[in-house]
Chemotaxis protein CheW (Herminiimonas fonticola), 165 residues
Amino acid sequence: MNATANNAQSVTAANSSLEFLSFTLGKEEYGISIQKVQELRGYDTVTRIASVPEFVKGVVNLRGIIVPIIDMRIKFNLGTPTYDQFTVVVILNVTDRVVGMVVDSVSDVITLTPEQIKPAPDMNSTMTSDYLVGLGTIDERMLILIDIDKLMSSAEMGLADPSLA
């Protein structure tokens, strides 16, 4: 019985690893749950909408769905964004909505075990710790792990605005 319990624990431990899509904003590397990612696209022209926050670049028509496009570099005050061949729009499925998130580049999908995820330090930053899952560590790399559901559904994102639906 003991061997069976140990096998069950090791299967549970193997299944508890999490996959994150890693991307860059400026010099920092971030990660979001791969389960929230619908697709990756190159940056394309967006239709601007009046009276939305600056970080909402506008909307695009994605196969009949109007998708708001959020520039994360503007949102997190990480300098003036530049759009080039490496700029990626990550199409997300969060809180029953489809949202596009503009990032500088996408690296890869990283699998982390719970032991590799450390709690985020409490700092006064533009990204409050409410949106952070923690910090993922792989060898010398460190990923800032974002709870994209909480971030995209926060009141400050303005995505509850019916004009963007």
Observations:
- The radius of gyration is 18 Å.
- The domain at 18-154 is CATH 2.40.50.180 (OB fold (Dihydrolipoamide Acetyltransferase, E2P)).
- Residues 4 and 20 are 31 Å apart (CA to CA).
- Confidence is low (pLDDT under 50) at residues 1-14, 160-165.
